[in-house]
Structure formats: structure tokens, C-alpha cells
Specification:
Layout lengths: L20 H10 L14 E2 L11 H9 L8 H14 L3 E5 L2 H12 L5 E4 L4 H9 L3 E4 L20 H11 L7 E4 L12 H13 L4 E4 L3 H11 L8 H10 L3 E5 L10 E5 L2 H14 L10 H13 L3 H21 L11 E5 H4 L9 H13 L1 E2 L1 E3 L1 H4 L1 E2 L6 E2 L5 E5 L7 H16 L7 E5 L10 E4 L2
Parallel strand pairs: 1-10, 3-4, 5-6, 6-7
Antiparallel strand pairs: 2-8, 7-8, 9-14, 11-14, 12-13, 15-16
Helix pairs in contact: 1-14, 2-11, 3-11, 4-5, 4-10, 8-9, 12-16, 14-16
């Protein structure tokens, strides 16, 4: 069959409040043209993020009911721990309330002034937690990863030549660990190949540097390896995942992505000494090590979700439904990161709005246009999120790419709703030459995109 159907039936629904264009303009003005500040009830199709916005299964809801809320040593924790050990094969498992808490704990222990941490591309919270420790976050994605319309099967790969040069120039003693983000969120949800992680591991071993994985979308990455990398077509997603993580010394994960839950995360380590330091900090900031800021019911739902996400029927549907959106808008003429990623479609706002310079935030302008047109909320991933003020010159430095991410929540929206999104994008595309940029009128010192204020330029 050509049509890939959803491998589930809808059992419960949530009403969407329909809005008019006038209501959306008013809501956007009140939110200072920052879609993070728009109320959820004023959004029709919410593609702001795929983090914690998916629908849980009936098995997960059943798990919620049997969650063990014992403070120390609950049955739900041991189920959670055993599931993670079975899939990822790490020695020490620390639950956290979400992924950024795992990052905060890890980099508080291994980061610090004078240290640098390379990655294919750090996402926003990873970069912020590294920099908050005083360390430097360095992106070393392959050149193809910075060319939106250049097709490559693994645009999320680390540039291994650049990585080795970086290690030589920086000195291994100043690099506490190397990271790989799978899939590469900031680079368009693009996957990392098995060959690439092997080579990254070889280089890390050469300089005695541990390798950690940002595992948020590990199952989606495994599916891309299965369908794109020779020799893995007959492997299961679980087998691919186990091999991939066998090259790592630890990982951080936001369970709000590929564990199919609304809250939670974890930190995994093999180094017992670092694990003990992290555990001590976990107790201080999150809670006792057998719950780590989560209820027992959350631990139970994560354990179930980590199994469900590796089901092949689910992964085929997930990747195909994302590709459906990307392929349709590409045919209209919309420039996207090609091929579409696993969890989102990324529109190249710089190419769509060539008349808007980077520091007038073309991505933010496009995101606002989509919301006004149809109540569709995406997110800017460009100079708002990754631009910064140069400490020496005081000048703002733009991002290398200006993107708008349309992140698709897992098991949440129907095909007709996605077709509605396609119509909205086409309407915005037709009046693309009329779009105006924005001026930033307020920004926080870190993660400014969450709370920044803007006003339209005349």
C-alpha cells in the first residue's frame, strides 16, 4: 500500500478553540510578537515543539494508574531503570524532571572555565547549560548540514576532520567530553550515521575523551539508519540503538521526545566517580535518586514509552508523516532543509524572505505570519535563538541559518490538520514579498528567545 496510515485509533479528543484573524492579531500584539508568549488556547495547530506535546497510549495511561509513589526505592523506578539499561546499556541511571536538568547536572560537574565541549550542533538548552558553567560550546557539523537545500542522507553528522583538529588545537585536557545530538535538532532534525559515531568514537579514544549522546530522538535516528545506511536494513530499531549507544560513555535525554511522555528525562553514565558527583547534585536539586523530580507514575509511563517508540509501525508512520508535510510544501516552492528531518520540517526563512536581513529576524517574521494567517504556531531557529552579542565589539552576531521549525507532536494531529497547515504556508508564500522584519525591544541574558519582545518594522 502507498498510504502509510496511523498505527493507532483515537480514543480521546481535545477541543480546539477556533479563532479569527483579528483575534490572532490581537493575541500576537499582546504577546509582543513572541509566539512563546501566546496563550495555548489561542493556537489552532501547535507546532512550536514536539517536546512533551505528544499523546500517550492506553498502555501508558494504564501505567500511570499503577505508578508506585514510594519515596525511596519504588517499583516504578526499578522498572524505569531496567528498561533504560536494557535499551541503552549504561551502568548508572539518574532520573530528572526533564532533559535540561540532566544537562545542568552533567555540565555543573564536568564543565567550567577554560573548558570546551564539541558537538555536531548543540541545541539551545545544551548550549546554555554549558555556557552557564563557564565552558564553551562548539558546533562542528558537516558542511552539508549548513546548506539547507543540499540533499545528504546524514546531514547531522559530526565533521570528524574538524573534530580532530579542534582536539589538537584545544588540548584534550580542556575537553571534558564530546557530544553528538541525535537527531540534530538545530540542524533540521537530521540524523547521524553509524559510520559517523564510530569515527567520532575512534577520535575520542585517541585523545582519551569520553563521548556522550544527546539522545532525545534516538529512535527516529535509528529508523534513518535502518532505511538509509547500508548493512542495517535488516536490523531492528532496538538492535541499531544498542549498537549506536555502545560507542558512548553516557547520555542525556529529554523523555518528552522519544519516550512519548509529557514530562521527564534522565542522565546515564558509565563512569562511577562522575556518576556519584552527579547523584549528589541530583539530590540537592531534583530529589532522591530513585525519583529525581518525577512521580512514580511518570517513571512508569517513560518505561512503557521507550518500548513503544521502537516499534517499526510507529516509526514508519512518524517519519513518513513528517516527510509528507515537507514534500508538499516543497512542491509549492517553499525552501526547506532537505530532506525533511524526523520530528519537524524546517523552512529556510533566509531564502523565503531574502529582502529581510538576519538582524531583522526573517524567521521570527515568518513564524508571526503563519500564526496570523491560520493560528499555526511554529518556532524561529535563527538569529533570535542563536544570535548573540559579541562581548568585545558589543555588536550582535547573527546565526548561520534563519529557519522556522514546524515540530510535529507525536500521535497528536491528523492528516487533514497537516493539510490545513500546508494551505496556510501556501497563502503566506503568495505574499512573501510584502513581509516586514522585526525589531527586538527586550531580551534576557540567556535563552532570550523564550521571553524576548519585538515590534514590527514600518
Amino acid at each position: 500500500m502507498k498510504t502509510v496510515i496511523e498505527p493507532f485509533r483515537i480514543k480521546s479528543v481535545e477541543t480546539i478553540r477556533m479563532t479569527t484573524k483579528e483575534e490572532r492579531i490581537e493575541a500576537l500584539e499582546k504577546a509582543h510578537y513572541n509566539l512563546f508568549l501566546v496563550k495555548g488556547e489561542d493556537v489552532l495547530i501547535d507546532l512550536l515543539t514536539d517536546s512533551g506535546t505528544g499523546a500517550m497510549s492506553s498502555a501508558q495511561w494504564a501505567g500511570i494508574m499503577i505508578g508506585d509513589e514510594t519515596y525511596a526505592g519504588s517499583k516504578s523506578f526499578f522498572n524505569f531503570q531496567d528498561t533504560i539499561k536494557d535499551i541503552f546499556r549504561f551502568e548508572h541511571i539518574l532520573p530528572t524532571h526533564q532533559g535540561r536538568a540532566a544537562e545542568k547536572i552533567l555540565f555543573s560537574v564536568v564543565g567550567g572555565e577554560g573548558k570546551s565541549i564539541p558537538n555536531n550542533t548543540h541545541f539551545d538548552t545544551t548550549r546554555a547549560n554549558i555556557e552557564a558553567s563557564g565552558a564553551k560550546a562548539v558546533d562542528l557539523v558537516v558542511p552539508e548540514g549548513l546548506k539547507p537545500m543540499e540533499v545528504h542522507p546524514f546531514k547531522g553528522n559530526m565533521d570528524t576532520k574538524a573534530l580532530e583538529n579542534f582536539m589538537i588545537e584545544t588540548g584534550a585536557e580542556n575537553i571534558p567530553l564530546c557530544m553528538l545530538t541525535i537527531t540534530n535538532n538545530s540542524g533540521g532534525g537530521q540524523p547521524v550515521s553509524m559510520a559517523n559515531v564510530k569515527e567520532v568514537k575512534r577520535i575520542c579514544n585517541k585523545y582519551d575523551i569520553p563521548l556522550y549522546i544527546d539522545a532525545c530522538r534516538f529512535a527516529e535516528n535509528a529508523w534513518f539508519i535502518k532505511t538509509r545506511e547500508k548493512g542495517y536494513e535488516n536490523k531492528t530499531p532496538l538492535e541499531i540503538t544498542r549498537e549506536f549507544f555502545s560507542y558512548a560513555d553516557g547520555c542525556t535525554m529529554s523523555a518528552k521526545k522519544d519516550a512519548l511522555v509529557n514530562i521527564g528525562g534522565f542522565l546515564c553514565l558509565n563512569d562511577g566517580e562522575i556518576a556519584q558527583e552527579c547523584k549528589n547534585l541530583l539530590i540537592l536539586t531534583e530529589g532522591f535518586p530513585t525519583y529525581g523530580g518525577l512521580a512514580g507514575r511518570d517513571l512508569e509511563a517513560i518505561a512503557i514509552g521507550l518500548r513503544e517508540v521502537l516499534e517499526e509501525d510507529y516509526l514508519e508512520y512518524r517519519i513518513r508523516s513528517t516527510a509528507f508535510l515537507g514534500e508538499k510544501i516543497k512542491k509549492i516552492g517553499i525552501p526547506i532543509i532537505d530532506p525533511p528531518g524526523g520530528h519537524a520540517v524546517y523552512i529556510d526563512a533566509k531564502a523565503l524572505y531574502p529582502h529581510i536581513p538576519p538582524l531583522e529576524y526573517p524567521g521570527q517574521a515568518l513564524a508571526c505570519e503563519l500564526y496570523i494567517e491560520a493560528g499555526v504556531r511554529g518556532v524561529e531557529i535563527g538569529s533570535v535563538m542563536f544570535g548573540y552579542i559579541d562581548k568585545e565589539t558589543g555588536e550582535e552576531v547573527p546565526s548561520k541559518m534563519e529557519l522556522v521549525r514546524l515540530a510535529i507532536p507525536r500521535r497528536t494531529y491528523t492528516q487533514s490538520q497537516i493539510e490545513y497547515v500546508i494551505e496556510a504556508i501556501e497563502n503566506v508564500y503568495k505574499r512573501r514579498t510584502e513581509a516586514k522584519g522585526l525589531k527586538m525591544t527586550y531580551q534576557a541574558s540567556a535563552l532570550r528567545h523564550f521571553s524576548a519582545h519585538f515590534e514590527p518594522l514600518k
